[in-house]
Design goal:
Helix 7 (about 120-135) crosses helix 9 (about 155-180) and helix 11 runs antiparallel to helix 13. This protein has 13 helices and no strands. It has helices at about 5, 10-15, 35-40, 40-65, 75-85, 90-120, 120-135, 145-150, 155-180, 185-190, 195-240, 245-250, 255-285. It is mainly alpha-helical and about 290 residues long. The protein has a single domain, classed as MetI-like (MetI-like fold, Orthogonal Bundle), CATH 1.10.3720.10. It is flat.
Length: about 290
């Protein structure tokens, strides 16, 4: 075949390629169907899972048929609304949340100070790593007996164990985020001539924020479960009105649906914090900045 003939031969894929104009090919995406849109919605998927779990709870409790061991979901929800109506659960929840916020914020302050010291000094970094290795594996609730001796019967004992629950998780994740920050971002801060404060606020914290947010979530979860456990023990001595005490008191009276209602309240608080508060922070920060998908 001659060169001139080869130059005028049109390849088959070009002959059969779909096109609607001379500029190029048209690529059209098929619109998503109704069920595909529903499945793509994370809120809907999680809601369906919660409904299925509630149905499984109801079925298992009815098959077991022993309300003293495992009440039905419907009776638990009824006890929950009754507790809300009488004001017992709102009062217990408000007391628990007030203690939780005090301990959580105090823990964040100490974590920020310890992380700042570790970020500017090798001795501080060694201190943080050593203290974390020593105290992070130690269950916070194990310190409650000592806290009762040191701080007596009062909120101070519970806040102490909450600080321990929050401090190490937040400090460790924050410091890890600082250490893994891209050198490019560090050079950008230096090239712009930012002050130390400006460098921390505009470069260091935003760059490490995914790790910081993880630490905040872990610290919150640790503090939440530590507080409920502490109230179950501490409330026996002080008669404090938290959710842990509400659960303990109803257990002593064999009001098991009310016990499960207290546990369900704890679960609902956890779902709200995770899927509303932390999700909103995540969407307005790391997702908006393109650091997570």
């Amino acid at each position: 075949m001659s060169e001139n003939h080869a130059a005028h031969v049109t390849r088959p894929e070009i002959l059969h390629a779909p096109s609607n104009d001379a500029a190029g090919f048209a690529v059209t995406a098929a619109p998503l169907g109704f069920w595909a849109k529903v499945y793509a919605n994370g809120t809907v998927r999680k809601s369906v899972l919660l409904v299925l779990l509630a149905a499984a709870w109801e079925i298992y409790a009815r098959v077991l048929n022993n309300s003293l061991v495992f009440p039905t979901f419907s009776s638990t929800v009824g006890a929950l609304f009754e507790g809300i109506g009488t004001g017992a659960i709102p009062r217990a929840g408000a007391y628990t949340l007030s203690l939780l916020l005090k301990g959580y914020v105090t823990g964040l302050v100490f974590a920020a100070l310890l992380t700042a010291f570790a970020s500017v000094s090798r001795i501080g970094a060694d201190l943080l790593e050593t203290l974390t290795a020593m105290f992070n594996p130690l269950p916070s609730i194990a310190l409650l007996p000592l806290a009762l001796i040191w701080f007596g019967l009062g909120d101070g004992s519970v806040i102490f164990v909450l600080v321990h629950a929050v401090l190490w998780a937040v400090a460790l994740n924050t410091f890890a985020g600082f250490r893994t920050l891209s050198p490019t971002l560090r050079m950008v801060g230096q090239n712009y001539g930012l002050t130390s404060f400006g460098y921390i606020v505009r470069i260091l914290i935003p760059g490490a924020f995914p790790s910081i947010l993880t630490g905040l979530k872990v610290g919150w979860a640790f503090a939440w479960r530590t507080l409920i456990a502490a109230e179950l023990v501490f409330g026996v001595s002080s008669g404090s009105g938290g959710l842990g005490w509400y659960i303990f008191e109803n257990k002593n009276q064999l009001r098991i649906p009310e016990v499960f209602a207290g546990l369900l309240t704890v679960i609902l608080f956890g779902l709200f914090v995770e899927n509303v508060i932390f999700r909103t922070i995540e969407q307005r920060t790391v997702r908006r900045w393109g650091m997570q998908h």
